[in-house]
Amino acid sequence: MFEILFLGTSASAPSAKRGLSAQIVKHDEYRFLIDCGEGTQRQILQSGIGFKQLTRILLTHGHLDHILGLGGLMSTFMRWEAIEELEIFGGKSALERVRILINEVVLRGANPPMRLHFREIGPGVLFETADFTVTAFPVTHRGPDCLGYLFEEKARRPFLPEKATELGVPFGPERRLLVEGQSITLENGNLVSPEDVLGPLQRGTKLMVVGDTGRTEDLLPYAQGADALVIESTYLDEEADMARQFSHMTARGAAELAIKAGVKQLILTHISRRYREKDVVAEAQSVFPGAVVARDFDSFTVRRDG
Question: Is the pLDDT of residue 306 over 70?
């Protein structure tokens, strides 16, 4: 299970009700901030989530509406908040811009208030635990090194408690050992193996987050079967030519990708001030009936198959 909290859902410039691009993805104790538009630190405070575990920032690209908040965030860490380590992941061009913003504008020769790491990445796995992975994939937008991110739980065999009870497995460490793949011997001498109490292999939850993008054909392989797709919807189809000119997505285009990929949930963000939210929803739902538009501070829980 993943959770995603939207901190900023506007395109290019903030509106009265929408801040600039930023989302937090959570899985157990892990938190990832995806993009950090201007004003993100205030949104973090207003959401009540706090700064303590926000030690990993994933950048989709280096446009200012997705990175300017890093300057203010670093300034706050220098004066008010304290974390021990901060990792900023992104493509080469995005990190070059962020280094200038942080090192030359904010720090100006001072030492950062934490261990600071700029992690230049390309497509591939960038973070992994025993339970899930975070993978970057290429996205077509204006400029090089644009990325999207896949959050995927690893496939597992579910524990069947009723089967364990039937075999006489007591509650406690014995069941944990079986889940970990180890056989156990009961007090009566019977041997119980993982095969006796584990069900068929099941895929884990899959969440796909796309920043700005002008194409969907190259995203289709990554989106296949996703439990949730988060993607920009800067334009409506009536201005599809302008969307192509600026390498952005329409609500219809995002919905068509979701249909083709068999996505379970479609969440649109990066909404332009030029449109009414209900019109964006209507266009997307004409193709993908369950589509929703995220608002600032909306939170979604993403589970396998719904």
Answer: no
